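4.2 Preliminary Data

To establish feasibility before requesting continued support, the project team ran the inverse folding procedure on a target of 306 residues. The structure was first converted into the token representation described in Section 3, and no sequence information of any kind was made available to the design step. The complete token record follows.
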């Protein structure tokens, strides 16, 4: 940070531009050169640049507004391009709005009843089992923790689809495959979440343990009241990322016969020969769900900040 003297003799601080601001300038400039639609966002970005030296928080707000303007005009550009493309004969071969309207409720129902259910229950299994494994490996003697870590590494380093097929042939045939697949994906991601918990526990200052011991706190209370609250705050971002990854790995359950979102899209395409609409809408549903999850995790992170 440096200072600069203006023409009227006042001195103001020069603050470096944020990465978001520079990216907004570049993206809005490119969109302006390509189609002219980036001009409104570019104007806001330039105003933020001018404001940056005298009021950095206001410049940050302007940058955020600039991204909203950029997103809105980028969407408008895509819609205009689609409208122009829809006037050509090739569009009818690629896309049918009637087919999209027909398949969307089917996909949404499958998403809620299967994909979302698998993700929510799987995340609950992974978060709770991962925490138990992390505390166990940090608490038990090395003679027991080493074999446990070895088992965790084996599960973490083998593909999820292999584990699904292995368990599929292992369990009785009358067991519901939806719950079998949910349990497998939950256990698989519990190994990743356990590593995140272990890293969070390691980040707690050792002096906290000594202070708890000086206060005659029991080991269990030290874990519950001192260590885990701090470790959970440190691990929350990575736990959110694992939950989003689990969302995207649910299509692997097709290997054991579970009809989830992607399999339903494939079935619709096979029956109607309209694959583009089904898979495009399935991808958009995944995208929207992941974005909502990411925003929720980010808000939870902010609410847990000291």
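Position-by-position output of the design step:
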């Amino acid at each position: 940070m440096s200072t600069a003297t203006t023409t009227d003799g006042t001195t103001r601080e020069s603050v470096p531009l944020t990465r978001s601001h520079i990216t907004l300038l570049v993206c809005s400039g490119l969109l302006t050169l390509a189609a002219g639609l980036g001009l409104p966002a570019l104007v806001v970005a330039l105003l933020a640049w001018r404001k940056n030296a005298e009021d950095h928080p206001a410049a940050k707000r302007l940058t955020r507004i600039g991204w909203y303007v950029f997103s809105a005009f980028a969407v408008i550009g895509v819609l205009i391009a689609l409208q122009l493309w829809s006037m050509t004969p090739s569009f009818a071969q690629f896309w049918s709005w009637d087919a999209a309207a027909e398949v969307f409720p089917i996909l949404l129902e499958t998403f809620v009843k299967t994909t979302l259910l698998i993700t929510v229950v799987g995340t609950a299994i992974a978060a709770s089992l991962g925490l138990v494994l992390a505390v166990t490996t940090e608490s038990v003697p090395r003679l027991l923790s080493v074999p446990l870590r070895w088992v965790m590494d084996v599960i973490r380093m083998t593909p999820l689809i292999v584990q699904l097929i292995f368990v599929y042939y292992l369990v009785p045939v009358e067991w519901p495959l939806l719950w079998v697949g949910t349990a497998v994906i939950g256990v698989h991601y519990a190994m990743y979440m356990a590593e995140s918990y272990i890293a969070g526990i390691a980040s707690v200052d050792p002096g906290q343990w000594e202070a708890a011991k000086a206060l005659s706190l029991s080991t269990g209370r030290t874990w519950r009241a001192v260590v885990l609250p701090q470790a959970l705050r440190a691990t929350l971002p990575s736990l959110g990322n694992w939950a989003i990854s689990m969302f995207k790995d649910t299509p692997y359950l097709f290997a054991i016969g579970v009809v989830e979102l992607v399999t339903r899209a494939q079935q619709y395409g096979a029956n109607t020969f309209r694959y583009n609409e089904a898979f495009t809408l399935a991808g958009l549903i995944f995208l929207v769900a992941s974005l909502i999850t990411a925003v929720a995790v980010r808000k939870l992170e902010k609410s847990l900040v000291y």
